[in-house]
Design brief:
Layout: H1 12-20, H2 24-33, H3 39-46, H4 50-62, E1 66-70, E2 77-81, H5 83-102, E3 113-114, E4 121-122
Helix pairs in contact: 2-5
Length: 156
């Protein structure tokens, strides 16, 4: 059975899943974001096999989400977010908000976020880029965009 190529679908969700749609990639991005930039640090935090971590890191580098930089005489590398990767962290923060609301339980969220500009603990709030009003699924209409097309992922 052939695997569906989400990257070829006319759907931004499918294309994003092609980059980070398996469970390890978002967790790797989280680790790099919070400062675990070296292979050994990421592996120790996640308990992931060397083989799988190598595959995932290579995939994220190839997709332009992470950058690999040497840090030692031996071929050792650390990983940093690219601009593309930093924007994916914004997406992960929306996932965190959902998880905090629906899955954290009575203990509350495992992590808090302090906003640099005001110094307050905050969460992510989706707002319209034009008017600034809060924006949720029930507040929008989905219309075909210039990249829409027929075929898988192009539901109208």
């Amino acid at each position: 059975m052939q695997r569906t190529n989400f990257g070829e679908m006319a759907c931004s969700i499918a294309r994003t899943l092609d980059v980070i749609g398996e469970p390890w990639s978002p967790l790797i991005l989280r680790d790099v974001f919070v400062g675990a930039n070296r292979f050994e640090q990421i592996q120790a935090d996640l308990g992931i096999s060397r083989k799988v971590l190598t595959e995932r890191l290579n995939h994220l580098v190839e997709r332009g989400v992470l950058e690999r930089r040497p840090y030692d005489q031996r071929p050792r590398y650390e990983y940093t977010l690219t601009g593309k990767g930093a924007e994916l962290v914004d997406l992960l923060m929306v996932m965190v908000g959902w998880g905090d609301r629906w899955l954290a339980g009575e203990a509350g969220p495992p992590v808090l976020y302090r906003h640099h500009a005001c110094g307050e603990i905050s969460g992510v709030d989706l707002r319209c880029a034009h008017c600034g009003e809060p924006m949720h699924a029930g507040d929008i209409d989905v219309l075909p965009g210039p990249g829409a097309g027929p075929g898988p992922g192009g539901a109208e």
